[in-house]
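Q: Hi! New to this. If I give you a protein sequence and the SMILES for nicotinamide-adenine-dinucleotide, can you show me the bound structure?
A: Yes, paste them in.
Q: Okay, here:
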Amino acid sequence: MNDERNTVGSGEPISRRRAIKSTLAAGAIPTALASRVYAAATDRIKIGLIGCGGRGTGAAAHSMSTGQNAVLWAMADAFSDRLRISHSSLMRGKAGASKVEEGSGFGDSIDVPPERQYVGLDAYRRIIDSDVDLVILTGPPGYRPLHFEYAVNAGKHVFMEKPLASDAFGVRRIMASAEKARQANLKVGVGLQRHHQDIYLEAIKRIHAGEIGRIVSMRCFWNTGFPAKTALPREDKTELEYQVRNWYFFDWLSGDHICEQHIHNLDICNWAFGDHPVSAEGMGGRQVRTDKKYGNIFDHHAVNYTYSDGTILHSYCRQIPGCSKMVAEQIVGTQGVAELSTTRCALANGDKTIWESPRNRGKDYQSPYQVEWNALMKSVVEDAPHHEVDYGASSTMTAILGRLATYSGKTVQWDEAIASERRLTTDAESWDAPAPIQPLEDGSYEIAQPGETKVL
Ligand SMILES: NC(=O)c1ccc[n+]([C@@H]2O[C@H](COP(=O)([O-])OP(=O)(O)OC[C@H]3O[C@@H](n4cnc5c(N)ncnc54)[C@H](O)[C@@H]3O)[C@@H](O)[C@H]2O)c1
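A: Thanks. Here is the predicted structure of the protein with nicotinamide-adenine-dinucleotide bound:
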């Protein structure tokens, strides 16, 4: 059962809910940690990409499209084929949201010779130890705390994708490193790009200004079909390699899809409310994605989150083809309702529209994936503070809390969840090392059984 997972010490547990926002004992700041100030125009910002998949390739392209003097200088991935595909796409193309579109290349903004291409589970260390200035962390979330910790200790600026971890152990590790990064004036961007999307920024500003009154309840959804991730065959891979190749389908690597995708919606609700929930209860399971090739994650979760004043967030995420689809948030206030999504945001009171996002995005529109990079690179060049970890970690923990509730079938308190000593992940750097979960005799994996599975 899932409750057989290893339990390890992880530094100081966080005992009070709001502690996630506060300073953790960061320990001594290594001397290597010093934010380098750039002489704009002449000084090239050397980018190192760790995790050369779809998003990493897109993020690398965005890093070179900010108008600052950036060069993609080194690349690292667990697997050589993934690195090669990413490198050749970047050599050919131009940035899309999470992929590279055919078109104009990046010219001399890419300078990644074979000696600066690193492969393996230890590739993250070798690239961070090189002369890169800023690293992009776009491997599986289960590795994010390890990669972030190493990058901060080496004094590198960071862009890292959500979610920031797959368990509370990882969230605490992220927060401890974040505090070091803050003290060292390192810039850290987090890929919750709705925080850089004009219509969300305007809608949240209006919600905070009281245009729909006091928030009394919220709903959010990430209901879609199967994700665009293919389960790859086992062949002669070791168990650890098999799981890392298929990382999306293992909770220790992805956090389950409530963390992987639904975090975006939960993050919006936390942003609107101005805090994270204090508890969660929910239900979920594997209704159609039941084959053993789909690891151990669920295909649906429904969670009721409770905030400190009793406000309830009803949250739903489902990956079942043929069902209704919806990716959106709804914030209900005493004087109106906000309907939010990446394509349209609107505030209304009954039939009366309070505000609606413009239908035409205008000729200067840039995707939030680009805007988040513009902000990060500007902060690097101007040596201005840039630190997006607090809300990234809080929203990551919110998604983890929901998974703990659906896996266990129990009401789970934030305080006990964030303090949990249970660790799902491994820092092992050899493919022969034991994977954190082992297959059963028939090659399938234990699936959480609500009512039986212990998660804390
Ligand atoms: N903000 C967004 O809208 C958005 C969109 C897409 C993906 N993402 C996030 O980006 C991350 C990656 O997603 P993706 O779709 O690019 O997945 P992907 O599978 O395409 O890419 C992940 C890459 O990491 C590599 N990898 C695995 N373990 C590694 C390790 N230990 N060290 C180095 N490399 C390792 C894999 O080989 C792969 O190339 C996820 O956390 C995902 O949630 C965010």
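A: The CA atoms of residues 79 and 171 lie 26 Å apart. Let me know if you'd like me to explain how to read the tokens.
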